[in-house]
Write a structure and sequence with these properties.
globular, mainly alpha, 0% strand
């Protein structure tokens, strides 16, 4: 049943993004930033954790999951280290994913060359 919920919730997040692209004048970059901010806000309110428990990767993989990860990292660091956690918490929580993205981007740049069209 977890796979079904992951598909449904992840699909709904994608469908909302596609509707925003089709029916608004928002650029894709603004929509992506909106997803991150929505994840931060829902994470701060404690709603996104319940959604992630229900949908698993269907809620944690999209950009809203990244926003939730930043919010939860900041919340944990503030509880542990006080105000300095505001600056360090998000990067500490997301460091694994950021490092993986950088390494995969570097590997793609090394092994593949862009071609002129």
């Amino acid at each position: 049943m977890t796979y079904v919920w992951a598909f449904v919730i992840g699909g709904l997040l994608c469908a909302v993004g596609q509707l925003l692209i089709n029916y608004t004048k928002l650029t894709p970059a603004r929509i992506l930033v909106g997803y991150v901010v929505a994840g931060v806000i829902l994470g701060a309110l404690g709603i996104y954790d319940k959604l992630a428990d229900l949908a698993g990767a269907g809620a944690s993989v999209p950009l809203s999951g990244f926003g939730n990860l930043l919010a939860s990292g900041i919340r944990e660091e503030v509880a542990e280290r006080s105000a300095i956690g505001i600056l360090t918490g998000g990067l500490t929580a997301a460091s694994g994913g950021i490092t993986a993205a950088m390494l995969f981007g570097l590997a793609a740049a090394v092994f593949f060359r862009a071609k002129e069209k």
